[in-house]
Structure formats: C-alpha cells, structure tokens
Request: fold
Amino acid sequence: MKSPIFYLLLLITFALLAWGTYQALVVAPPEATMGDAQRIFYYHVPAATAASILFGINFLASIWYLWKRNPQADALAVAGAEVGVVFFGVVLVSGPIWARYAWGTFWVWDARLTTSLILWLLYMSYLVLRRSSEAGSTSVMAAALAVFAALDMPIVYMSNRWFRTNHPQPMIGTLNLNPDMQKVLLWNMLAFVMFGLLIAWFRYDIERTGQVINALHIQKAARGSLAMMMPAPAMFLFVDDKLLHEKMVQHRYMVAGYIAVWTIYLGYLLFLFAKLRRLKKEYREIS
Amino acid sequence: MSPSVFKLAAANLGKDLRLEWRSRDVLNSMLFFALLVVVIFSFAFEPTAEESRRLAGGLIWVAFLFSTTMALNQSWARELRNGVLDAYRVAPAPAEALFLGKCLANYILVLLLECLMAPLFVVFYNLRSVGPYWQLVVIFLLGTWALVINGTFFAAMSIRTRNRELMLPLLLLPISIPAVLAMVTATTAVLTGEFSPAGQIKFLAVFCVVYTTVSFLLFETVLNAE
Reply:
C-alpha cells in the first residue's frame, strides 16, 4: 500500500525524534529561572508549527477540492484537519502544564491562548461536520467550512489585539534565544514537522482506502481527538509541594509534559492502526 | 428576459415575511425564548445598576445569539418540509437570490426581536447608557448582520446533516466568536462610557464584508452539494 519512500522517511523521522528528544533533555542548557520545566518548550513550539502547516494543507486541499472535485484532495483535507487537531491538542495540553509552573495558573484568557483555543474549536467543528453529514454532501460542505475556518484565523488574531498578552514572543533568530537552545529547538521542529506530515500521509492513505471501499459507516476521528483529553486530568495531580526541592518540582512538570504529550501522539496512532485494521477486514469481506 | 437577482431576492423576502406574518411561529418562540433568558440571567446574576452595566453587553448578546439560532434553523426547516430546496435546485433562478432573500428576512426578524427586547433589558437591568447611545444602533445593525449572514449560510448546511438543528450552533459559534467578542466589547464600551468602541465597530464592519463575500461565493456550491 505504501511506497518505500514512506518507510525510509519513517526511519529518518524516528531517528530525528530520538535525536531531538536527546538534545532537548540532555544537551540543551537548563533555563536560568525555569530549569527543567522550560524543556516543554522543545515540543510545544514544534507541535504548533506542525499543526499550522497541517491546517494550511487542509485549506489548500479544500480549495483544490471545491475547484476540481477530486477525491484525493478531499482525503488530503481530512488528513490535514484531523492530524492538525491532534497536534494542536498537544499544544493545548503541554502549554498549560508549562504555564502552571511559569505563571502559576493553567490558563489565562490572553491573546495567544484564546486564538489557539478558537483555532482548535474551529477544526473540531470541521471534524464534527464531517462525521454527521450525509454521505454525498460531506466533502463539499466540509470544504466550504474549511474556507470559512481558514478565513477566521486572521480575524480571530485581529480581534485579540484588545487582550493583553503574557505569552512569550516568538524568539527564533532573535538575540533573546540562547544559540544552543535555538539549535535544539530547530532540530525538534524538523523532527515534529516530519512526524506530523508522515502521520498525515498515513491518515491520507487510510482515507483513500476508505473511499475505495466506499464504506459509508467508517467511524470518523472525533473520537480519536477526544481521546487526547484523557491525559488532561493528569495535570491536576500537580500540587505545589513546598517540601519538594525546586529542581524536583521543575523536573516533575517536565516529566508530566512528556507523558501527556506522548499519550496523545501514541493514542492517536493506535486509533489509526485500529481503523486501518477495520478497513482491511472490511476490504477482505467485500472482495 | 430574466428578472434581476434583486427582484428575485425581493420576491423571496416577500414570501418569507408573508409566511412569518401568517404563522408567526418563529417570532413568537424567539421572543418568548429571549424573555426567558433575560429572566433567568437576572436570577443568576442579581444585577444592580452599576454591575449590570458591565454585564449587560454580554447578557444581551448571549440572549440574541441563542434566539437567532432558533430563528435560523426554522427558516430553512420550513423549506425542507415543503421540498422548496429541491424546487430551487431545478429552477433557473440564481441561488444567490434565494440566499439574499433569506438573509434579509432573517435580518429583519432578528432586528424586530431586538427592538422589542431592548426596552425589557432597560427595565429589568436598570440600564442607562453613559456613552453616546446612537453608537449602539450601529453596533446592533452590524452585529446582527454578522450573526445572520453566517447563520443563514450554516443553517442551510446543517439542515442537511443527520442531526439537523443540533448542528447549527456547533458550526456557527466557533466561527462567530470574534464577532461576538467585538459586539460584547463594543456594547460594554458604550454602556459604561469608559472607552471608545470605534475599533470594534470597524472590526465588525470588516467581519461583515469578509463573510458576506465568502457566503455569496460558496452558497450555490453548498446548495447543490450531493
């Protein structure tokens, strides 16, 4: 089903992920005030970058679909939106864990956070629409909604100007970021963007298989993206224990972040594999 | 010679308003619903004059947002029941005319609701505008259009999904968040007189222009989606 290029890329991506994680955990210097808790940054930012690229893919594929009406574009749009929602879920879970340490609170209604949450809600509504519309009209309606959603983004960003922001400003290429940290961040960015695109490719193939089988009752992924809410309650395990050494506290936040984020990624991958197995079974029954 | 888009839109508008005038089911249920929201909010928040001025912007728009959703669902459900949508698909009239007529009809209905509800808000929440009140008129005209244009579009979409009426808020609310934010902030600005709503009003105007354009571009595609 997949080309050898896919497997080659898979290998490279896993090597990059391992290398990136090693860099983030061992090589990168600890931050002056936040210590280990700051290491969440090395997958928080790359996940956001990957998700933005995936939503971009969703937008372009939707326009392509509205124009040419070919099923490949539709499958690409689904893959972009769904994997984008998962990666953005990672952003929305890892961000609060860091914020709990750095700001002392999980969530504030600030410009960047509000924008991100609305973005996530928009693409969730896209997935919900795909799930509940009737077979024939799904693709067209979803594509139209994708155009609306993509247009909403600059507008949401504009509307948030009247919120104050606490969120750290983008730092790549500026003097504020320690060059060692920047190098680690860029490695991680490369790794996670490739990871995201690869999962999207995988998801795209599954969608194409689904289209070929023309299974009307394929379960769409809203369930998969809800599964990522599961690690969220883990955040409430954190109490500020005054007896703990500060370094320990920072360490705990870092570990919690990693656990939460990889639960989401692996949970989603498991979901995709289960889906693939179901489709294969169905395919065997039909042919 | 075929009649112009505006003539057809006017015919659609006339039809919708006549239907509504004869049955009055949408307006009645909208009004009653908004009234209930006002009463329930006042129990929930116990507004005194000073506090309510800060809260009122949000309360007014939440009440109108929910009752607008009701009206929008009804406006297309009626067409579906009588097979008008199918008739429209085969008719040579442009889909834009239908959409424009629908939007205007909904706009008029919701504005009417707002005119009727405004005195109630003033009475129940003891409101008095500190800023210049004519700005409120501009905010309501633009804000209502922002809700109605997207709402009419997404209602046409959601009416054809499996869970129909349930779907509309799920699609409409995320898209409308920036507009609702602007409406609420602008209304609060005028009521408290603490800052100028000019920025938010401009923002609402941009929102209306962008989404009116996209809705008209995509409506025919969505109507014919099969």
